[in-house]
Please model this.
Amino acid sequence: MLQRCAACHRFQWGPEWICHRCHSFDVQWESVEPVGTLYSWTRIWHPTHPVLQARGPYLAAIVELPHADNVRVVGNLLGDAHQVPQIGAPVRGVFEQHATDPPYALLQWTAS
Ligand SMILES: [Zn+2]
Model:
């Protein structure tokens, strides 16, 4: 889900109390299809969080969503950690569910 302004109808990310563009306080949540294009990426060799130290190296990506006002979101890029991803490549989001308290979902991306 992304925020969408009820006044100017534009999407935005990250979440805010007001619209970045028109400053309306009427921002709502709307489901969007998790597809986009690879805007940028980096390879993480030395994860700082203890949970991730056994999973490195891995790829972190910024993905642009053309159908949602080109909002950009961050996530991991799945697959071979030594691949050389192509900027502009189509990707699809997948959600890794964690049944912790509270539960959360981690957004990740894969080539589509
Ligand atoms: Zn607005």
